[in-house]
Amino acid sequence: MNEQQHVKQSNTQASPIKTQVGSIFVPVKDIEKARSWYCQVLGLSEDDCR
């Protein structure tokens, strides 16, 4: 298998981590400000992010 074929094959394989990570915790100083920022970045309504 040449390098180009190997790169193509590895790009199409499923991530071994993606199917196992359920959530990630990021400690913040101001939880309300962080919630607002994440809702805005993710395009969610703050009412839906309780």
Largest sheet, if any? none
List how many beta strands DSSP finds: 0
Helix content: 40-55%
Q: What is the rounded Rg?
A: 18 Å
What value does the average pLDDT take?
Answer: 77
Multimerization status: single chain
Number of helices: 2
Explain what the structure shows.
By secondary structure, this protein is mainly alpha-helical. It contains two helices and no strands.
State the gist of this model:
The protein is mainly α and 50 residues long.
Label this structure with key terms.
2 helices, elongated, mainly alpha, 50 residues
Summarize the SSE layout with pairings.
Elements: H1 3-12, H2 31-42
